């Protein structure tokens, strides 16, 4: 029951204007990306809008993903929540639904001490039989950790890996050398190739919902030692990512899925729907991706 490597979309959650999950759209997205050859899914993370959802909505998405994927690839459930009981509950559900691993964002907002964060993960790792992937995203949590602190968290029994969503590649490199068995996922799609060169095991990201074939081609070029092609693909991907991020990322990713006939739906409030000019830009981005 090893953790997956390779390209792993951070799954989007298509919703209607009332914020209810569009099951058929979610199933289409899963089938489409599976056909592209992705190695797994990260379900219910930031990209999945977990922090805008109720626990029952999160549970529903975990269930739809596991029923649809039906063990074709391993699934990682993001179960982090501000209410610890919600995390425990979702961790239990993930285990019952056959997830390969759980993941939790580092506790945020209250400025918790390192000890508090350590004991949060210790307790989660004790109650769950599933391996834990800590979700390190300092730009959004406002809380960073030194590589020594990450190494202390990595030593918790059951802590199997990290989703490293940070651009501090020196820290990534130091951790890789210090923790050879620890599973490391790159989190900024913009940095896939540099992170691969530093020995990450996989990459979890939002943009792979619409660029999986390109990201997989980059991964394979790197594996084959074709660094010129890998570098070119990173450049192509980054041109796309720059456009996506400049147009409101998640609603644009969903709009692109709509254009491809997969049905992306909307984002939950307070995300706003795309304006007419953002929709035009989204059409241009989709056309650009198709040309690459
Ligand atoms: C998740 O939890 O949904 C993702 O793994 C988050 C992922 O790391 C993305 N980060 C954010 O959206 C904040 C990246 O894929 C990011 O969207 C991408 O690199 C574009 O900047």
Summarize the structure.
The chain has 292 residues and is α/β, with parallel strands linked by helices. Helix content is 50%, strand content 12%.
How would you characterize this protein structure?
With 292 residues, the protein is of the alpha/beta class. The protein has one domain (6-224): TIM Barrel (Alpha-Beta Barrel), CATH 3.20.20. 50% of the residues lie in helices and 12% in strands. It is built from 12 helices and 8 strands. It has helices at 23-36, 55-69, 84-96, 114-127, 138-141, 147-154, 169-178, 192-197, 208-223, 227-245, 249-259, 276-291; strands at 6-9, 41-43, 75-78, 101-105, 132-136, 159-164, 183-186, 202-205. An 8-stranded parallel β-sheet has the order 1-8-7-6-5-4-3-2. β7, α8 (192-197) and β8 (202-205) form a beta-alpha-beta unit. α9 runs antiparallel to α10 (227-245) and α11 crosses α12. The chain is globular and about 50 Å long. It starts with 5 loop residues before the first strand and ends with a helix. The relative contact order is 0.14. It binds 2,4,6,7,8,9-hexahydroxy-5-methylcarboxamido nonanoic acid.
What attributes does this structure have?
single chain, 292 residues, alpha/beta, TIM Barrel, 12 helices, 50% helix, 12% strand, binds 2,4,6,7,8,9-hexahydroxy-5-methylcarboxamido nonanoic acid
């Amino acid at each position: 029951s090893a953790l997956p490597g390779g390209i792993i979309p951070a799954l989007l959650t298509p919703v209607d204007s009332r914020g209810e999950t569009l099951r058929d759209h979610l199933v289409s997205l899963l089938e489409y990306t599976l056909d592209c050859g992705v190695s797994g899914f990260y379900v219910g993370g930031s990209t999945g809008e977990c922090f805008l959802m109720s626990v029952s909505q999160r549970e529903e998405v975990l269930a739809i993903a596991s029923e649809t994927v039906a063990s074709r690839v391993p699934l990682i459930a993001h179960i982090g929540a501000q209410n610890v009981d919600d995390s425990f509950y979702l961790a239990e559900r993930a285990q019952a639904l056959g997830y390969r691993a759980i993941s939790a964002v580092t506790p945020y907002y209250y400025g918790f001490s390192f000890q508090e964060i350590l004991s949060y993960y210790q307790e989660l790792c004790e109650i769950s039989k599933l391996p834990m992937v800590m979700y390190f995203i300092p730009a959004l949590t406002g809380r960073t950790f030194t590589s020594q602190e990450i190494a202390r968290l990595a030593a918790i029994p059951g802590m199997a890996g990290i989703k490293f969503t940070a651009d501090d590649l020196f820290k990534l490199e130091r951790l890789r050398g210090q923790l050879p068995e620890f599973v490391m996922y790159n989190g900024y799609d913009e940095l896939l190739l540099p992170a691969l060169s530093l020995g990450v095991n996989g990459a979890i990201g939002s943009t792979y919902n619409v660029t999986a074939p390109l990201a997989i081609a980059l991964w394979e070029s790197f594996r084959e030692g074709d660094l010129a092609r890998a570098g070119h693909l990173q450049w192509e991907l980054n041109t796309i990512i720059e456009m996506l991020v400049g147009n409101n990322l998640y609603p644009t990713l969903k709009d692109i899925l709509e254009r491809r006939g997969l049905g992306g739906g909307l984002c939950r409030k307070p995300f706003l729907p795309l304006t007419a000019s953002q929709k035009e830009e989204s059409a241009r981005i989709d056309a650009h991706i198709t040309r690459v």
